[in-house]
Amino acid sequence: VKLGAIAQAVANVALARQLGVDLRGIVLNCPQPLTAQEIDQWAPASLIMNLAQTPVLGTLPYLPNPESTEALALAAADLEIEALTPTLNLTPAKSR
Q1: Which of 57, 66, 73, 86 has the most CB atoms around it within 10 Å of its CB?
Q2: Residues 6 or more apart from 30 whose CB is under 8 A from it?
Q3: How big is the CA angle at 8 (ends 15 and 64), to the nearest 5 degrees?
Protein backbone atom coordinates (compact mmCIF):
# COMPACT_ATOMS: atom_id res chain seq x y z
CA VAL A 1 0.00 0.00 0.00
CA LYS A 2 1.64 3.22 -1.12
CA LEU A 3 0.71 6.82 -1.49
CA GLY A 4 -1.33 6.99 -4.68
CA ALA A 5 -2.61 3.43 -4.26
CA ILE A 6 -6.22 4.57 -4.35
CA ALA A 7 -5.96 6.37 -7.69
CA GLN A 8 -3.83 3.59 -9.14
CA ALA A 9 -6.29 0.89 -8.07
CA VAL A 10 -9.27 2.77 -9.49
CA ALA A 11 -7.44 3.49 -12.77
CA ASN A 12 -6.38 -0.14 -13.15
CA VAL A 13 -9.92 -1.37 -12.52
CA ALA A 14 -11.22 1.05 -15.18
CA LEU A 15 -8.59 -0.18 -17.65
CA ALA A 16 -9.40 -3.82 -16.92
CA ARG A 17 -13.10 -3.17 -17.53
CA GLN A 18 -12.34 -1.32 -20.76
CA LEU A 19 -10.31 -4.32 -21.95
CA GLY A 20 -13.09 -6.74 -21.02
CA VAL A 21 -11.30 -8.40 -18.10
CA ASP A 22 -13.65 -10.30 -15.77
CA LEU A 23 -12.22 -8.65 -12.66
CA ARG A 24 -13.59 -10.24 -9.50
CA GLY A 25 -11.61 -8.34 -6.88
CA ILE A 26 -8.54 -6.45 -5.80
CA VAL A 27 -5.76 -7.59 -3.48
CA LEU A 28 -3.74 -4.82 -1.87
CA ASN A 29 -0.19 -5.43 -0.73
CA CYS A 30 2.00 -3.68 1.79
CA PRO A 31 5.69 -3.42 0.81
CA GLN A 32 6.75 -2.00 4.17
CA PRO A 33 6.05 -2.89 7.80
CA LEU A 34 2.93 -0.97 8.84
CA THR A 35 0.17 -1.61 11.34
CA ALA A 36 -3.34 -2.41 10.13
CA GLN A 37 -4.40 1.07 11.26
CA GLU A 38 -1.61 2.72 9.23
CA ILE A 39 -2.54 0.67 6.16
CA ASP A 40 -6.18 1.71 6.49
CA GLN A 41 -5.15 5.37 6.74
CA TRP A 42 -2.99 5.15 3.59
CA ALA A 43 -5.46 3.21 1.45
CA PRO A 44 -8.85 2.55 3.04
CA ALA A 45 -10.26 -0.63 1.50
CA SER A 46 -13.82 0.66 1.83
CA LEU A 47 -12.96 3.80 -0.15
CA ILE A 48 -11.23 1.77 -2.87
CA MET A 49 -14.23 -0.58 -3.06
CA ASN A 50 -16.65 2.35 -3.39
CA LEU A 51 -14.61 4.20 -6.00
CA ALA A 52 -13.69 1.13 -8.06
CA GLN A 53 -17.03 -0.65 -7.57
CA THR A 54 -14.98 -3.83 -7.07
CA PRO A 55 -14.49 -5.82 -3.86
CA VAL A 56 -11.18 -5.63 -2.06
CA LEU A 57 -10.38 -9.24 -1.20
CA GLY A 58 -7.89 -8.25 1.46
CA THR A 59 -4.40 -6.97 2.03
CA LEU A 60 -1.22 -8.97 1.91
CA PRO A 61 0.86 -7.69 4.83
CA TYR A 62 4.53 -6.84 4.67
CA LEU A 63 6.53 -10.06 4.61
CA PRO A 64 10.19 -9.78 5.63
CA ASN A 65 10.84 -13.00 3.69
CA PRO A 66 8.44 -13.00 0.71
CA GLU A 67 10.13 -16.11 -0.72
CA SER A 68 8.81 -18.17 2.19
CA THR A 69 5.91 -20.25 0.87
CA GLU A 70 4.72 -20.82 4.44
CA ALA A 71 4.55 -17.07 5.12
CA LEU A 72 2.78 -16.49 1.79
CA ALA A 73 0.26 -19.24 2.53
CA LEU A 74 -0.49 -17.78 5.96
CA ALA A 75 -0.94 -14.31 4.50
CA ALA A 76 -3.12 -15.58 1.65
CA ALA A 77 -5.33 -17.49 4.08
CA ASP A 78 -6.81 -14.16 5.21
CA LEU A 79 -7.91 -13.18 1.69
CA GLU A 80 -11.59 -13.47 0.82
CA ILE A 81 -11.03 -15.63 -2.26
CA GLU A 82 -14.60 -16.91 -2.24
CA ALA A 83 -15.47 -13.83 -4.30
CA LEU A 84 -13.32 -15.22 -7.11
CA THR A 85 -15.29 -18.42 -7.52
CA PRO A 86 -19.02 -17.74 -7.05
CA THR A 87 -19.99 -19.62 -10.20
CA LEU A 88 -17.73 -22.63 -9.74
CA ASN A 89 -18.96 -25.81 -8.12
CA LEU A 90 -16.13 -26.69 -5.75
CA THR A 91 -17.93 -29.64 -4.18
CA PRO A 92 -16.03 -32.89 -4.78
CA ALA A 93 -17.75 -35.25 -7.18
CA LYS A 94 -19.41 -38.26 -5.59
CA SER A 95 -17.85 -41.58 -6.50
CA ARG A 96 -19.99 -43.80 -8.63
Answers
A1: 57
A2: 1, 39, 59, 60, 61, 62
A3: 125
Are the C-beta atoms of 23 and 17 separated by less than 8 Å? Answer: yes
Express each pLDDT in 22-43 by its tens digit. Answer: 999 999 888 888 888 888 787 8
As a whole number of angstroms, the distance between CA 53 and CA 50 comes to 5
pLDDT at 1 over 60: no
Tell if the pTM clears 0.85, that is, is over it.
no
Nearest Cα to 53, choosing from 14, 27, 3? 14
The answer to whether 1 touches 43, Cβ cutoff 8 Å, is yes
**Amino acid identity for residue 96 in this structure:** R
